């Protein structure tokens, strides 16, 4: 998928919502545990009831990988289901990989070619030769961790290097990498005012924004400080949507929560 | 395994060698591709011929994950084989994970409990709450990326924050984390003289050192600047050992290369 197509989907659906699939077997409705593949059954139900309200899905690979071979099978089924039934949705493998040269190339092939994800999240710590292998694939994106929404973000990301916080150095340095037009960035909503500075460095890049809602960020502020003329935002919600109910009505409850966010987004997009 | 047991193994075998299992189907001897599970067949042969010369094995999970479900099966078989046949070897899942709270906990359980690895490599970018979940498991270790041996290491790791390079800030900050005695650090051999400064910050931690040989680092210098009174070093070699030959004699060739390193290590340990 191209960035232009993603922007078109956002305008069409009046939504820049990304639904995070952090599928925890201890949190999904107990009746699903009787299914042959509970993780996929849960993912499928969530996807089927929310697809018209969001433009992206983000399976968190850790939750799948935690179950070894079985988990990988569930992840494969989930991305195959998305690609087959909802090809207009942007898909994000939230894997937070980061390794050198040939290893990065392996990961890029696994996520982009074998699984056919549109994008994968990447850690910046190892620098250029850990990121560039992910940027060699046409219409595929690497989403780099810049400023995350957790408490530990203040350990290193906000510390100053050459008069700029590390996360801004990450934006500045990586936007000089080869094929950097295929980079997007993770920027936590808990510090929405930071988005102003971020937009000065990467005016055109899409930003994947976690931390709205549960972690305290305001959607209105994220839009105010973070949107560009192509919108340029994907706001992620995981637990707030997918665990809205742990009863048999979980899918409808997830839809209601997603709709609440989509309605708010539609209002912001009209401004 | 405890750090003390690891040190004992090093003294017993006169070796601080870690063999990296970066198993690339395009590089292993072609005759193995006829095996039912070529990755495991290769790993098993390398392990069986090198085990008495090394104290640790480090499967690089990317190479397995690149093959999806099949790759995970090969990884599971490899670690099960190690745990069953060579329980005195320290095992490292080179996964370079790094995510927040509940996701990190998932990964920690997957690698430490389900697969029973002794350790897993971790990226520091997300800070405290991405690292501490890995430190809650007794006799298990998180090996944090500090200073890697690739060219991109100079993009961020060596940049100065509060008068110290970022990688030293990582050492300093993380050594204050809860259960930090379960931390080890990746420090590339290509900058062996840096090890002096590193030892001032983490005198007692084990260091996992890649980049000797192929990437230009000197074993002698690594030992000179990096060893502590428990040795405290694991020097990794991957390609230099496992791809010593791509013919039918690959396992013997790998043994010869491993022995070359072990002999050099034995000499250093006598000093």
Q: Which characteristics define this entry?
A:
homodimer, 271 residues, TIM Barrel, 8-stranded parallel β-barrel, 12 helices, 44% helix, globular, Orotidine-5'-phosphate decarboxylase (chains A, B), OMPdeCOase_dom (chains A, B), decarboxylase (chains A, B)
**CATH level 1 class label of chain A:** Alpha Beta
Radius of gyration of chain A: 18 Å
Order of helices and strands of chain A: HEHEHHEHEHEHEEHEHEHEHH
Q: Give the number of DSSP strands of chain A.
A: 10
Main sheet characteristics of chain A: 8 strands, parallel, barrel
Percent helix range of chain A: 40-55%
Q: What order do the strands of the largest sheet of chain A run in, or round the barrel if closed?
A: 1-2-3-4-5-8-9-10
Output the CATH homologous superfamily of chain A: Aldolase class I
How far apart lie the N and C ends of chain A?
Answer: 27 Å
Task: List the total number of helices of chain A.
Answer: 12
Question: How would you characterize the overall build of this protein?
Answer:
- The structure is a homodimer of 271-residue chains.
- Chain A is of the alpha/beta class and 271 residues long.
- The first copy, chain A, has a single domain (3-270), classed as Aldolase class I (TIM Barrel).
- Chain A contains twelve helices and ten strands.
- Chain A has helices at 3-13, 38-50, 61-65, 68-85, 101-114, 128-131, 153-156, 166-174, 194-201, 219-226, 239-242, 250-270, and strands at residues 17-21, 56-59, 90-97, 119-122, 141-147, 160-161, 164-165, 183-187, 207-209, 233-237.
- In chain A, the strands form two sheets. Chain A has an eight-stranded parallel barrel with strand order 1-2-3-4-5-8-9-10, surrounded by six helices. Chain A has a two-stranded antiparallel ribbon with strand order 6-7.
- The longest helix of chain A is centred in the C-terminal third of the chain and has 21 residues, at 250-270.
- The relative contact order of chain A is 0.15.
- Chains A and B meet through α3, α4, α5, α6 and α7 of A and α3, α4, α5, α6 and α7 of B.
- Chains A, B: Residues 16-254 form the Orotidine 5'-phosphate decarboxylase domain.
- Chains A, B: Pfam families: OMPdecase.
- Chains A, B: InterPro entries: Aldolase_TIM (IPR013785), OMPdecase_type-2 (IPR011995), OMPdeCOase_dom (IPR001754), RibuloseP-bd_barrel (IPR011060).
- Chains A, B: It comes from Nonlabens marinus S1-08.
